[in-house]
Amino acid sequence: MFEAMELDCVFLETNMSMKKRYHMVYECIPLPREVGDMAPIYFKKAIMESDEEWSMNKKLIDLSSKDVRKSVPKGLPYFSVDFGLQGGFAHIIEDQHKFPHYFGKVLWCERSIYQLFSVL
Fold first, then answer.
1. What residue stretches are annotated with the Cwf19-like C-terminal domain (predicted)?
2. Beta-bridge partner residues of 29
3. Which of 13, 26, 34, 59 has a Cα at 20 to 30 A from 85?
4. What are φ and ψ of residue 30, in 5° steps?
């Protein structure tokens, strides 16, 4: 479907609030192909800068060789991004109260606003 429109897809998965109620959100965001090619760079940088400075868990988990279910310990909240056939990244959320549930979408909004003002 997106291939015919020359679009790439980025899949965002956020799994939080596991103690209160199990809550997972999975989203598909279509992007222009040239933006989709740069998506791994932007997400890697954003994940490295997110959450706590000092964490108990690995900050960035590469999902190119394993599935997120095999990479993230069961019962821990996480954010993951998948770039289709290219694999993706995951991040274990240390503090659920500080980590925004809209993390992946904010990244694209900030990037779009930056591009808009750099053209002006």
1. 1-44
2. 10
3. 59
4. -75, 140
Give pTM, 2 decimals.
0.79
Beta strands 23-32 and 7-16, pairing class: antiparallel
pLDDT in tens, 12-64: 998 887 666 667 888 888 888 877 788 888 888 888 887 666 667 778 889 98
Closest CA to 14 of 45, 52, 41, 50: 50
Half-sphere exposure of 4 (CA within 13 A, CB side): 1
- Residue 94 and residue 56 in contact, taking contact as beta carbons nearer than 8 Å: yes
Contact assessment for residue 8 and residue 86, using Cβ atoms and an 8 Å cutoff: no
d(CA 93, CA 71): 14
pLDDT tens-digit series, residues 84-117 = 778 899 998 888 888 887 888 776 665 554 443 4
